[in-house]
Prior knowledge:
2 domains, Maltoporin, Chain A, mainly beta, 736 residues
Amino acid sequence: MPVKCHNLQSKVQPPIYCIMSSNVKSLILAVSFFVYLQPVLSQIVVSGHVTDKRTGEGLPGANVYVKDSYDGTITDEKGLYKLEIQNSGEIILIFSFVGYQSVEKSLSGTDNATIDVQLSESITSLNAVTITAGSFEAGDKKRAAVMDPMDIYTTAGSLGDIGTALKTLPGTQVAADDGRLLVRGGDASETRVLMDGVLAAKPYYSKVPDLPTRGRFSPSLFEGTFFSTGGYSAEFGQALSSVLVLESQDVATEELTSVSLMSIGGELANTWVGDNRSFSATGGYFNFGPYNSLVKNHMDWEDHVEAVNANISYRQQGDKGSLFKFFASGDYGGQSFRVPDGTGGDLMIDEDGGNIYANSTYHRSITDKTLMKLGASYTFDDQDFRAGIHNQQTGEGVSEAKVKLISQINGRFKLTYGGAWQRTSFDETYKQSESGFSINANFSDNLYSAFSEAEWRLNSRLAFRPGLRYEYSTQSNEKALSPRAAMAFAAGKNTTVSLAWGHFFQTAQSDFLKYNRDIKMQKSEHFIVGLQSGSLATRLFRTEAYFKDYSGLITGEYNDFGEFVPMANQGSGYAKGIDFFYRDKTLIENLDFWVSYSYIDSERKFMDYHKKVTPEFIAPHTFSLVAKQFVSPIRSQVGLTWMWNSGRPYHIPGDDNFMAHTSPNYSDVGANISYLTSLFGQFTIVHLSISNVLGRENILGYRRVSLSGDSENASLITIKPDVKQFIFLGVFISIN
Length: 736
């Protein structure tokens, strides 16, 4: 069995618990619990009562706003509202509430007015049946929000990382030595991340063996998330297991300067606000040297992790509800450390590199029933990796352009359709410093796709969503047709049964194609049945059972240099299991907690596996408990997270039983506290987070290291967290 020793696809490891991009503004917004709104002076006061037409009850939280402006308010707990507006001739007020048909009212004159409105429930209401199979959604526009930016920042142990926080949801693996999302039997490459529906090709900082990485994007950039653990829409492709769609913030309404002082660096952010537009900029510097000098570290560092990052965003609101967004980010970092070489010596790993990402979207209504969304993104990743005499320089660019149209045919039928073009350009040069040997690999691929999906609500209790996706790759000269379908039935008040099925394809990743251009697409087929009951406003229960069938998985072997060389698509496998999720906000005052449990049975023949076995990244049992309590007397929120999984399989070289051994169980209890105070007259948060508060000696797994290239003559290296406990201290100052 060839060895997975020093994976030279591994590039720059980011600050392992650090690069908390846009952390200042984001953490402040996430845990402040205070929003300072400046009232708009006006000449007319409009007030009234918004009620449910059927029941006559007031609707709390309904929107009341002036058409084509930002003047607006929401109703109180009784459905009452009061709005001050500028007198500008004829004014149209819009009354809207999620799940109800909007109403427009005209207002003219210079006198104060009282306008009472009754809203009728829509058949497409979220009170009606909603297809939820395989999907967790969160955001201001969704009543059944599961995880929003505040949840991510205040989940103990996440340290503001989206992926780490999502691992507390069912269907994911803890994988403390990875950091990326591993979903329902899939490895990290099987999850696709998008920003506003457009590809984010390198969403994580580069991965080093045995150490966790982090996501590049800050939760504060987004107002909602769509996380599908399977059976997702025909709009999305090139992912065998999962998609994560991050929905960015709209136009900012408040100017804010944020300063962050942290135990591993610092950051400065500012937001400027104009008429129907806003601009934000953030920059940060991080250095792990001072921190690592104070704590015991399992890594033999030569040069500690050091990095800089920056991002900008521009938002502009136009007529007819149009919205333009632009976002760009960049980072650069480096590190060097020594690892065992399997012969009793060590090998110096030295790496540095950077990443640039740009994303732009535009949407507007083109008719009274059709919305158009345009999007484009570009990612460029440049890495320089050195291991002893070996040097590898890699540059990869990925771009995507996408058009999507949504047509609301009538109150029962909606059609979503569109297409996308994606281009990948890869160039890598390998050199040996002693011999002078050099080789270059480069290729490009154009991937074209089209999709169409209908959502048909037969009545308020039954919905059906069939879809079809087409993809063509110029690199492999393949065409793939992916039929998909989902349906949901309201089994009772706040109780929904959902079903989902579909075919999903994914081309080989660039690190494989550089060795073999004949590798074809891999395929998975999903079957999901789920039950969801309750409301997130009080308590929510959810369970799903699933089965995934894999075919055409990539097989091959590792070379003496430790890189995987694909040979064919002769692999196959399956994953089946059941997930449970429960969240409660009412059991104890000011306490919010959730519990998730996942069981998975998965086997596959892929990579260098010679038979079907449970992969080394799969733990059959995974459990998470997250609790958050706001303590008013001390103006603080206290958080606790317990993440546990059973042991993962591993192989001992020379053993006739492949992958027959199991590592110890993993358990980590994290805690944090956010204290709200004032510093120099400015709102301030002091945030303290501690991982592994019980001091457990966790073993994450074992890595095989060959001796002289002989896979049967190898040793095992125990994989442990780089630090036993990580303590993060940050002071976040908001300057208005």
